[in-house]
Predict the 3D structure of the following.
Amino acid sequence: MISVELLRQSRIETVAHSLREDIGDGDITAQLIAADTRASGRVITREHAVIAGREWVDEVFRQVDCDIVLDWQVADGQRVEPGQLLFRMNGLARSLLTAERAALNWLQTLSAVATNAAHYAALISHTRTQLLDTRKTLPGLRLAQKYAITCGGCSNHRLGLWDAFLIKENHIAACGSIAAAVRAARELAPGKPVEVETENLNELQQALDAGADIIMLDEFSLADMRAAVAQAAGKARLEASGGIDDSTLVAIAETGVDFVSLGTLTKNLRAVDLSMRLDA
């Protein structure tokens, strides 16, 4: 789970970067407007979506001009319809226009993640299987995307390489065995979750015997997934992974695995269509 402070610091830094790349040494077009001209405006969605990213939008406007006032009409995690008002704004016209693109970029991207996650979560809502994201995120946007995942009703896998072990084939080969890799993990960082990737039922048993907390079933057949659920018998949580999409997800969740991890939740996105207009 992402700590509030870690997320806040990441938001400040990534928003600042997005403004630097957009504004550079100054918004020359905004300077066509008299410096004291005030304006109000609104942002709407042009399509169905699940909203995520309010605090990133707030941070954009705060960093551009802390006197801008936003009046939100929706909450993160809320489903919206085409034409729906998301928020109103009021402030100096120059500031509103300078902040526009960065603010919409954050909102349309994070809402795309939440909308995508909600789509997949709905497919398996009749099961107890939990959908997890992966580390296949847009560079620099890891924590923001993982936050948006939760707005869409899915959950986070590990945040990075530091907060949990995921022992894969090459780690096992280098350590000598699954048992040796798990033992080394326990000694290195007691209390950190230990997950082992397996490719067959024999490796699954080795991971169970080694005491892994979570065992990844990498590209198992449906029959082998069902066998794995019976074999594990609750001794470890099971995560299905590898080549899963919306045409195979339901059948996999119905095998009884605890988790399904999907890279597509964060990497295959289409930005939500939003529009900002200043009032006449």
